[in-house]
Each structure stands twice: as structure tokens, then as C-alpha cells.
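thoughts on my protein:
***
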Amino acid sequence: MSATVAHIWRHPIKSHGREEISETYLTAGKCLPWDRRWAVAHERSCFDVERPSWQPCTEFSRGAKSHRLQAITAYVDERLNKITLSHPDREDITINPDDAGDANHFVQWVMPISNGSRMLPSRLVSASQPMTDTAFQSISIINLASHAEIEKKLGTSLSPNRWRANIHIDGWAPWAEKKMIGKRIRIGAAEFEIREEITRCMATTVNTETGVKDVDMLGTLNKDFGHQEMGVYAVVTKSGRIRQEDTVEELS
């Protein structure tokens, strides 16, 4: 069976919502459009709004520290530059993230589902480079067969959205992605170089429907598989459109 794209996801506000899309156009050297375009700086963040630039994840509110954030979903209206966010414990909210009033409204909206014993959200920020967990502009990819192996060890069904990846691939052998570092793949008209593995954090222990921690994901990865990685970061080397059900071809 050939490998194919099962799902494509974007996360407009880092750690604050996900949206599935059927297709998108990727540009060489760039992230998936609308992915991690904004982030939520916490109250002790050193993010400089006068000179905004990419910053590591420790500068922002995220699901590893505030588990309930994992249950946020998003809908983007690209034409109006608006995002509608939903959470099981909050009324839906629609904002223009670049509008100061809307941004402040969003911070107040997310406050009750943020962990009060951790650093609280302070402001919605953006920079010329999206706030991925890598200093380079990356596309994150997971192998659904590897995800299925983890489900077997835990004895339960898990949403692949725990991994917050951009592209879910069906048809690779379990853990095949670990042998692809430095190799190239083609999806649709776009080409990628697999750059590095993704080391996982506490956010993956949280149920994406409820925002409640329900599995020992990191313990399972370390004890049963001998590592704490799941998925890979890739860079786009050739621009092109990708779609759900596109074939994934290994080039080298």
C-alpha cells in the first residue's frame, strides 16, 4: 500500500486551537500558511513587541503547562482575517488577532481555562516568522502507524491531534519516519527534506476533547519504545499544492 496524506492541520494561534483543512499551497522555506502565526506571550515572557522575532516555546502559554488549552478548536476566515475559537467550557469567540481590542478580549477569554498555578497569558503576539517549536520554518509530520503502536501499548484509542502536527501520513511502516532524517519526500506538487525528530512534551498526555490529562504518554514512549520522539520536522524545498489523499513518495 502506498503512503498517503490522511489529514492536514493548522494551528493559527500556537497551542490555542487547531483546524483541519483539505488542501493548501506550500512555499519553499516557509511554514504551512496560517500555522502558528500568532502566539500567547505569558506574564513573564521576554517577547519584545517593538522588535518582534521568533522565540522558543518557553516564552508562550502552551498545553504542556495549561492542559485545558488542548481542547480548543479553531475556524479561520482567511478573507476577513478572523478566527473563531471553541472550547467545551467556554462560549465561542471570534476575533481579528491583529486588532488590539480583539486580542485583549481573547486573552480574557482564555484566562479561565489557563492554569492559575503557572504563568498566565498576557498578550497575543506575532512576528514575521511563525512561532513553531523550531527556529527554522518547519512543517511537522506524524506517522499514523507509529501512533497506532502507541495506542496498542496504552490499550486505548487516542486522537492523533495530541501531537499537534500539520500532516498525518497513512501507509508508512511503524516508526519508518525515524530512518528518514536527511531524506527527501514528495507530497502532491511539493517536496520536503526531513530535518529532525520531534521530542515530545507533557501536552501529549492530555485528551484533546476534554483538556484533561488521561495517559502517561512520555512514560510509555520512554519505557516501551526507548525514546521520547514522535514525528518529524520537515522543511519545504519545492513549492506546490498538497491535498488530503495525495500520495507520499520517498525521493532519496
User: Anything to note?
Assistant: Helices lie at 100-110, 144-154, 217-225.
